Amino acid sequence: MKFPFTLLFLLLFSLTVSSQTYRELSEKAIDYIEEDSLAQAEDFLVQAMKLEPSNPHNALLFSNLGLVQRRLGRYDDALQSYTYALNIAPNAVPILLDRAALFMEKGMTDRAYQDYCEVLDADKVNKEALLMRAYIYVIRRDYKAAHMDYDRLLELDPQSYSGRLGLATLEQKEGKFREALELINKLLVEEPEDATLYVARADVEREMEHLELALVDLDEAIRLSPQMADAYLLRGDIYLVQKKKVLARADFEKALSLGVPRADLYEKLQQCK
């Protein structure tokens, strides 16, 4: 699954700041962010904070600095900037969400979990935090807790795509295949061109040993989204079970061409010989 980062625009006209230069530097940094001139944006943000290191609005500047650093691929620096921002504004929900999303991207789910819990302490109906904490509970195999968060999310937003798909995945993991299929089928009625849903349904059908149905769904997913590596991987797995090694290898090779690391497929490619 992909994790969202919020650009915290500085509405500096409404802020009381003591220095025109601080304001100008901050505004120019935002202009550079919008232009994707990230190195320049970083420089102006740093200059502004050096000029007024005690300005309480530096929480916003540090948050935007974290955004810039993340987009530059400097994740550790970004985490540090988000943490500095939270030292100034400990209960800033948007910043907590941004840091949590970056923790998730780095595979640091325990740290992300802490941030999502803090968000929900401050905002008990935050849908993003409920969704992501439920996902973490699924990873931890704490299915009861995951159900509670998904149920709460769907009470708040019954039409939540991510919430319903996440719940379907949870039902599948609990072996409740028919319940999972029911959720996915309802989503497909609403989104009949969504390749992700066909892959999700195919995975349930595979576990139910309805392999031919799964292959039909995967063919449709690939027709809709020819660059979806997950569809080729799952279809390759099914072909391997069916002893169709040539077809399986072709799908695994296609997945490699779409960016799946060869090390991840080494054993499966060996089985195709």
Automatic annotation (TrEMBL):
* Start and stop residues of the TPR repeats: 59-92, 127-160
Cleaved signal peptide residues: 1-19
Q: Which residues form a coiled coil?
A: 170-221
SUPFAM superfamilies to which the protein is assigned, alphabetical: HCP-like
UniProt cross-references to InterPro entries, sorted A to Z: TPR-like_helical_dom_sf, TPR_2, TPR_rpt, Ycf3
Name of the protein this chain belongs to: Tetratricopeptide repeat protein
Keywords attached to this entry: Coiled coil, Repeat, Signal, TPR repeat
Q: Which Pfam families match?
A: TPR_16 (PF13432), TPR_19 (PF14559), TPR_2 (PF07719)
